[in-house]
Design goal:
Number of helices: 23
CATH class of the largest domain: Alpha Beta
Strand order of the largest sheet: 4-3-7-6-5
Number of domains: 4
CATH superfamily of the largest domain: P-loop containing nucleotide triphosphate hydrolases
CATH architecture of the largest domain: 3-Layer(aba) Sandwich
Number of strands: 16
CATH topology of the largest domain: Rossmann fold
Structural class: alpha/beta
Radius of gyration: 40 Å
Largest sheet: 5 strands, antiparallel
Length: 482
């Protein structure tokens, strides 16, 4: 007994004899009738100690969660008295824990409206309320135990902070490639036609209205769309491009509007935001808008009118602030007349129209374009060689139905072959492949006779005819040029 006292033991469990001994030593005793009772008592004590340890661990976990939660959290009992408030809630409300614990929620934080959800027994999610000059998004949830209301809890967050987080996400998206690389000043050309288009594009960039860019295929519609974005107030925001003709209709809808988890077989876990959401505060460029189906035209019209999107399979409307630039090589008005394109959408898209000239009406720009493309693809050509090639009359004689895209293709073919052939011969052979010959019968017979006599050697044929090879080539092409 003396040893037990020295070790600090204060309670001893045992039978009547033990109880009599320890009573004289000042140690508290708990009477047990049997040894089996002692075992059961010890087991119970261990379980109680373990339970208290688990409860203490859970309490510490809860305290940590509350302390470091980004959202404000406040809970009340069934009487509406505050039982829990975390640091984020203290900061948003502008109070401290020791002042409000045990106080009525109605007096401390009436915006929480927790009494209301206890009465209705239904949660209220994503509600917008005001606290002073700030706005919050709040969720209100009743606490039910065995179908009995035991209290309620509210989680809330400052809208300004939410917007800051969204801004960081969008900046990361911007850094991942949703960026316009071309500026209006980068668009090559000194002709009156292209200068006029560049002036209009610069003026349109100062306006937030929708822009419709029209022009033949290959005239540089996407470059102008990027230039308008970069010259406007949204230049630091995302620039998102989608080709309406390149994606099947069912996939295009999910790309544009996004989808919720489980919206369809194969839907990504957690869902996926659409391009309109990703472009928030920025620009969406819809290329080949004339290929958009009627059903998607209706959904696009809602985005333009209401500035809202609804994901596939979703029930939550999301607000978006975007500028829409669209482009087409088709006559949209004719399509509306035939019933292939919605008139109301046409007027929404065609607020500001930018018409791009075809290359054949701005041929003075061709040498500049040729020099640029040669500099990019033929790195070992000298400046004088590039200048000489760019001034070759063959470029001006061709009508360029494929416009700048076709010109670039020709230069890329030239770049692949120029080291093994004379520049003049290579250019002529490249252009000979483009269109069929269209000569009058008499002239054709003479040219064919001479060509046959020299086994098809155009250089020798040109000498015999007393003309340059370039002239011979032009004659062979007939009215395809001009």
């Amino acid at each position: 007994m003396n040893q037990l006292q020295n070790e600090g033991v204060k309670v001893v469990i045992g039978g009547s004899f033990l109880q009599e001994v320890i009573s004289n030593k000042g140690i508290k005793g708990i009477f047990i009738y049997s040894s089996d009772g002692v075992t059961r008592a010890l087991d119970t004590a261990v379980q109680i100690a373990f339970s208290k340890k688990v409860e203490a661990r859970k309490a510490e976990e809860l305290r940590t969660i509350l302390a470091f939660s980004y959202e404000g959290i406040i809970a009340v009992d069934r009487n509406g008295l505050i039982t829990v408030i975390n640091p984020s809630a203290e900061k948003i409300i502008g109070t401290s824990q020791h002042k409000v614990l045990g106080q009525s929620i109605a007096g401390v934080f009436p915006t929480a409206k927790l009494t209301k959800v206890m009465q209705s027994r239904r949660p209220e999610l994503n509600q917008i309320e005001s606290i002073g000059d700030s706005q919050i998004v709040i969720n209100r949830i009743p606490i039910l135990v065995n179908a009995e209301v035991m209290g309620a809890v509210a989680t809330f967050q400052n809208i300004g902070i939410i917007q800051e987080v969204e801004e960081k996400i969008r900046k990361s998206l911007y850094q991942k490639g949703f960026v316009a690389k071309t500026f209006i000043k980068d668009i090559i050309g000194t002709s009156d036609q292209i200068q006029k288009a560049k002036r209009e594009a610069f003026l349109y960039a100062k306006n937030s209205s929708s822009v419709l860019i029209t022009g033949e295929s290959g005239t540089g519609k996407e470059l102008f769309a990027q230039g308008i974005h970069n010259a406007g107030i949204r230049f630091r925001r995302p620039f998102v491009t989608i080709n309406c003709a390149a994606i099947p209709d069912n996939l295009l809808e999910s790309e544009l509007f996004g989808y919720e988890e489980g919206a369809f077989t194969g839907a990504k876990k957690g869902g996926k935001p659409g391009l309109f959401e990703l472009a928030h505060e920025g620009t969406v460029f819809l290329d080949e808008i004339g290929e958009l189906s009627m059903s998607l035209q209706s959904r696009l019209l809602r985005v333009l009118e209401e500035h809202e999107v609804l994901r596939i399979g979703g029930d939550h409307i999301r607000s978006v602030n975007i500028q829409v630039i669209s482009a087409t090589n088709k006559d949209l008005w004719e399509m509306t007349e035939k019933g292939y394109f919605r008139k109301d959408l046409y007027y929404r898209l065609n607020v500001l129209e930018l018409r791009l000239p075809p290359l054949r009406v701005r041929k003075t720009d061709i040498p500049l374009l040729v020099k640029k493309f040669l500099s990019e693809t033929c790195h070992d050509l000298t400046a004088n060689e590039i200048e000489g090639i760019s001034q070759h009359p063959i470029f001006g004689d061709y009508n360029w139905p494929g416009n700048i895209r076709e010109l670039r293709n020709i230069i890329e073919r030239f770049a692949a072959l120029y080291k093994n052939e004379e520049y003049e011969d290579l250019l002529l052979s490249l252009f000979e492949r483009l269109t069929p010959s269209k000569l009058c019968s008499v002239e054709q017979e003479e040219f064919n006779r001479v060509l046959n006599s020299v086994q098809g050697n155009k250089t020798e044929a040109a000498k015999k005819l007393g003309i340059s090879r370039t002239t011979l080539w032009r004659k062979l092409k007939g009215n395809t040029f001009g």
